[in-house]
Amino acid sequence: ELTPVCWLILLLRTLVYSSLGQGGASLSVNPDRSQFFEYESVSLSCEVQGNSSGWRVVRNPDRGNLSECNTDWGKQQGSSCNVLLIPSYSGVYWCESGSGEHSNAVNITVHAGAVILESPALPVTEGDSVTLRCRYQRTPSNPTADFYKDGYLIRTETTGEMTIPAVSKSDEGLYKCTNSEGESPESWMTVTGDRVEEE
């Protein structure tokens, strides 16, 4: 479990790296969510305009040690890094080139508990429809979930999922959900007004 201080440091790192120049690369996450149960898999890919050689997926865990895919975590397959997740792999991930350029960064949380919040790992665009889901290790007898933003209860949903039909900048914040099974970690949802231009 990340302490609030460690979480804040990770969030700040994510925001710093997200604000850096894209350097012609972007990190994609499949599936696109920021929380995972222990032993789930995620595929991280460096999508590079032009020559993709020299780009690698790296992570910075809360101890501050930078490490790259295919060393002690992950398996490189082409331009993707496939990771079987354990809690110590929680941290900030991004793509980095040999010359030190950075892509966007994402904060991934791996939870050994009973409940996670399915929320987008990548920024969402204003006007988009976004669904947040409370997900459980085992099927709950009652799927009703409470959704919190920035520490305040905003909605209770009997289906266990909450849809924002058209997100706005005011929806940006720190989300979590709770259910009779337990409580999810918190994850930051970024809302941007910039649509990514297709090449």
TrEMBL record:
Residues 177-199 are annotated as: Disordered. Residues 1-21 form the signal peptide. One of its GO terms (molecular function) is transmembrane signaling receptor activity. The keyword Transferase does not apply. GO terms for cellular component: external side of plasma membrane. Residues 25-109, 113-192 form the Ig-like domain. Pfam families: Ig_2. InterPro entries: Ig-like_dom, Ig-like_dom_sf, Ig-like_fold, Ig_Fc_receptor, Ig_sub, Ig_sub2. This is Ig-like domain-containing protein. It comes from Coregonus suidteri.
